[in-house]
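Ligand: 6-O-phosphono-alpha-D-mannopyranose. Inputs:
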Amino acid sequence: MTNQSNVSFEMLASEMLPFATTLDMDTGVLSPVPAPIQRSLSQLVEVFADRGSAERILREEGDRMIYEVFPVALPEDAAHVLHCTTVIYPGTIGGEYHMTKGHYHAQRDRGEVYLGIGGEGCLLLMLENGETRTVTMKPGTAAYVPPNWAHRTINTGSVPFTFFAAWPGDAGHDYGTIEQFGFAKLLVNQDGQPVLVNNPHYGSSS
Ligand code: M6P
Ligand code: ZN
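Predicted complex:
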């Protein structure tokens, strides 16, 4: 058996040996990976529409973990299929559910596949003209992100929402466009139900 310790970035793709990581289906944690990427509220204040609520929570309750990403270490080139799991913890900020930053692929013509593992969530997708779609995600949902669609995942439930993702190694992450313009729609908790509403800040520099 081989595992991730066989991966060396100096290796040519043709020299890489097969390896496997292990997905804990209960927690969504993938291992071994170098280190999870951790995104806490203090790093995401600008991401939520209601920044006042985000700042008040930080002041009154302290910081909280919003999501963690467990990325398998691979070279970011076209020869490879990057993959990871993401764990989004439950909660809301000013009514908006906990969610990822969201991104376009730097190379727009690259797609991605998500597989729901645990909990429930929503995949929010948007084209650069603002056209928006959502996909409800549950354990076993295999969702496809076609090329050109920005994508963000949102925990609409009361337990961690976990999913696996795989995408071309040369796709890259473009966070800047979303940081500048935002998503056209927000998913908010209204009387316990997720409702898609217009983002009042959409299009304006945040
Ligand atoms: C998915 C994939 C990853 C991404 C992660 C968190 O697992 O799309 O590439 O990093 O979600 O999303 P973001 O990078 O937008 O914070
Ligand atoms: Zn992506």
